[in-house]
Structure formats: C-alpha cells, structure tokens
Amino acid sequence: MVAKTVIAQYVKEMRKKYKLTQVDLSEKAGVGLRFVRELEQGKSTLRLDKVNRS
C-alpha cells in the first residue's frame, strides 16, 4: 500500500531530523518499540488506527 510507505518514510525522516532514536520516539509517542520499527518498515499488517492515536 502506497500510504504506508509514504508514512513510513516521513516518520523515519522526521525522527532523524529531530535526532531521536526509535526508542526515544516510541517513549514519546506512547507506543512500543516494535510498533515504531514496523511503522518505519512500512509493514503491511500494521494497524494505521494506532498511528492516528499517537
């Protein structure tokens, strides 16, 4: 799905821009590290409703 890859790229770029690690981002967003990793990979089974909550 194109939307997930666009979101994945954007999240990763913004995380790096603000010099955050994946751990930092997961803590600030209140989600698990695994979620951040899967989000940045554009995993097809990722639940986007969880992205909207964060």
From TrEMBL:
GO terms for molecular function: DNA binding. Residues 11-50 form the HTH cro/C1-type domain. InterPro entries: Cro/C1-type_HTH, Lambda_DNA-bd_dom_sf, Tscrpt_reg_HipB-like. PROSITE patterns: HTH_CROC1. Gene3D superfamilies: lambda repressor-like DNA-binding domains. This is Transcriptional regulator, y4mF family. It comes from Porphyromonas macacae.
